[in-house]
Amino acid sequence: MLPLPPLSLYVHIPWCVKKCPYCDFNSHALSGGIPEEAYVDALLEDFDSEVNTVQGRELHTIFFGGGTPSLMSAKGFDRFLSELQKRIRFSSDIEITMEANPGTYEHDRFRDYRKAGINRLSLGVQSFQDEKLKALGRIHNSEEAFKAIESLRGMGFDNFNIDLMHGLPGQSIQDGLSDLKKAIALQPTHISWYQLTIEPNTVFYSKTPILPEDDTLWSIQEEGWDLLEAGGFKQYEISAYSSPGKQAKHNLNYWKFGDYIGIGAGAHGKITERETGRIYRNWKTRMPSDYLSNDKPYEAGSRVLSGNDLPIEFMMNVLRLNDGVERSLFAERTGMAISDIESQCKEAIQKGLLEPDRLQPTKQGRLFLNNLLEIFS
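and the corresponding structure tokens:
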């Protein structure tokens, strides 16, 4: 019988003001207001349908993602969180994160979000340069981003992430590093810094903009690592950097192959069953209209992870972490023996991609992570 891992909750809010041309998330441009009351009702019913997956555990983290969750009112969040606490215990140090956009219309809501119980924000800045924001289809400008950060600090948020991209259309080395310097100077507790990638089913995929050359991308990356380290931010995951003790607990649970319930249109979950030892993933219906319909179930599908799936599923998560995990966690989280992947580990060690004493990528392994993962696939 597997010991159950920590439990998190992901809540998807699928609406946004405008769909960004690079975005492949399940988000839908608003045509009118959010059906907030009906959606909160549906989220609570969706959670009730998953209540058997709790198995006596408490919630360690909650993450409201989207879309643009900050389009929902503080009253809506307060109602949802109050009702949720009647259904499941919250840990005493629960982390409750909400993604937010820095548009000025949201600033006055920050204080009320804090009162509702949200104690961490992830602000989708992406760039501090107006021309780059315009190219990305963002609805805010750089001045609004600075004001939003000043505002959220003044309204009680001392734990927040700045989401920042590099490798943007027309971006020079100087541009990329300038954005990063401005983010560091604002002294967030966490910076998510990652390269723009062109994903299928996006506007950028069909109308690809001119992106920086590989040499420029590498220079931004290398010099950016030095800037972040000098600014007191330690890289602990591929694109995540934090000040001491401020790693994103919700994401760490993902990366350590913990369990999470996913509710909301298009949300995904991963659950371990205590009695059977089965590990499965499930996903919810994507379209908000279908999710809100009484004629359709919330769950769109699920699949059990087989013994063939588990090694790569586990490694795809834990090898994102700079420090990796103890070898014992493989058995603890999958129910398989470490001997089941010993030959792959030896191959990865021989190639200089994996540390010998733990499931941790070497520096070379982090740079060539896809090559490392192929060994376990």
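(Above: one complete record from the training split.) Residues 7-253 form a domain with the TIM Barrel fold (CATH 3.20.20.70).
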